[in-house]
Write a structure and sequence with these properties.
Helix content is 55%, strand content 17%. It has 403 residues and is an alpha+beta fold. It has three domains: 26-67 and 158-202, Multidrug efflux transporter AcrB pore domain like (Alpha-Beta Plaits); 68-154, Multidrug efflux transporter AcrB TolC docking domain, DN and DC subdomains (2-Layer Sandwich); 208-392, Multidrug efflux transporter AcrB transmembrane fold (Up-down Bundle). Helix 8 (248-262) runs antiparallel to helix 11.
Length: 403
């Protein structure tokens, strides 16, 4: 549609999106500074840079929502010659065009609203404004045009401020669903954009909220892994062997990214929630496998035989629990249900992909890492034992040690 729109001088076409719920279908870039005119002057370069992003369909600034306005520039010296101040002129023009509320008129036990304003035929055009009469100190009537100039330009629909500074917004409509990647493209497009001193640009409150949520999700993932590790350390009575269970988590992440890539789903909020839930689920298969290996070794079986026996006995239960969980998540992954505009499907896809890949690799990778870590545990025990033996064999008397 954008390519086939006819081209007219002074007109610009764009493609927008309308949100039926959830987040706005656009991201915002803000310019902040003291002078609104300066911000307007920088707007063209900002739109040029943002328009160079391939996924951007259209741009909208706050100026496009404004209306044409008449700006009256008062010559203060000329006004003072007539005994008029800029404040008096501004108030008078405002009263004449917008009117002034007078005290209510009491009539027949009711109040009547009274407003003082020029007749409509006296305030229709720019010529009427130029001919507004002002009474000087000498008692003469002078028109507004004798001490003021007039300019027609597009003004802002509203004046937006942030922390005492004027703020101008540019809405960026895009076909990209991955907000994180879009923000990175905006940073690359705005790289090298120079601003006057005291002026700045940012990506707004939505980006700040997104950054805080990403940090919170990352912290939650780290805490989940930490708690799983501490619990495994208590259950296995070892500091090293829990790593055999922890190493199954990265392979679940591999399944998550493959699942999202195959289904063309972005790593959004619900996907990150699925990752946190997945951490507590995928370790179950590794736990039951490592626990049985330890029990068989405690009964006197060798490590290699215990690994083979545990893999043979636990293969069917692990496969059954994974299949039941995966098929239970299938309706969520394939459905279109939402909550407050946020779809549930990414949560199901994340957990399904992570479970399937983690299950396939757990039966091979966990025993391998268990072997490596068990060798490391035995080696550390041997080093500690040798170290303490050497300390016990040293004499307490330095003189005997010298002899």
């Amino acid at each position: 549609m954008k390519k086939t729109l006819p081209k007219f001088v002074g007109f610009r076409g764009g493609v927008e999106a309308r949100s039926s719920g959830g987040e706005d279908p656009y991201v915002s870039v803000y310019l902040l500074g003291e002078d609104h005119k300066t911000l307007e002057g920088m707007l063209g370069e900002v739109e040029r840079r943002l328009g160079s992003i391939s996924s951007v369909t259209s741009l909208q600034s706050d100026l496009e929502f404004g209306n044409d306005e008449v700006r009256v520039q008062i010559n203060r010296e000329q006004a003072q010659k007539h005994g008029l101040s800029a404040r008096e002129v501004g108030q008078t023009v405002s009263y004449q065009l917008m009117g002034a509320e007078l005290p209510r008129y009491q009539a027949n036990k009711k109040e009547v609203q009274v407003q003082l304003i020029l007749n409509e035929e006296d305030r229709k055009s720019l010529n009427h404004l130029k001919n507004f009469k002002f009474v000087t100190e000498a008692g003469e009537e002078v028109p507004l045009s004798s001490f003021a100039t007039f300019q027609i330009s597009k003004g802002p629909r509203f004046i937006n401020r942030k922390n005492g500074k004027n703020r101008l917004r540019v809405r960026v409509y895009t076909t990209k669903d991955d907000v994180k990647e879009l923000y990175q493209e905006i940073d690359r497009a705005m790289e090298g954009f120079t601003l006057p001193r005291g002026y700045e640009w940012n990506k707004g409150e939505r980006y700040s909220t997104y950054a805080r949520e990403s940090e919170a999700m990352t912290f939650a993932i780290l805490m989940a892994v930490t708690f799983v590790f501490l619990l495994m350390g208590i259950l296995f009575e070892s500091i090293i062997l829990p790593f055999a269970v922890i190493f199954s988590i990265p392979f679940a992440f591999l399944g998550v990214y493959w699942g999202l890539w195959v289904t063309d789903t972005i790593m959004g909020f619900m996907s990150k929630v699925g990752v946190i839930v997945l951490i507590g689920v995928v370790v179950n298969n590794a736990i039951v496998l490592v626990d049985m290996i330890n029990r068989l070794r405690a009964e006197g079986m060798s490590r290699g035989d215990a690994i083979l026996e545990a893999g043979y006995n636990r293969f069917r239960p692990i496969l059954m629990t994974t299949c039941t969980t995966t098929f239970g998540l299938f309706p969520m992954a394939m459905g279109s249900s939402t909550m407050m505009g946020i779809p549930y499907a990414p949560l199901g896809i994340t957990m399904m992909g992570g479970l399937l890949v983690s299950t396939l690799l757990t039966l091979f990778v966990v025993p391998l890492f268990y072997t490596f870590l068990d060798d490391l545990r035995l080696m550390l025990k041997r080093i500690i034992r040798i170290t303490f033996r050497r300390q016990e064999s040293l004499p307490d008397d330095p003189a005997q040690a010298a002899d």
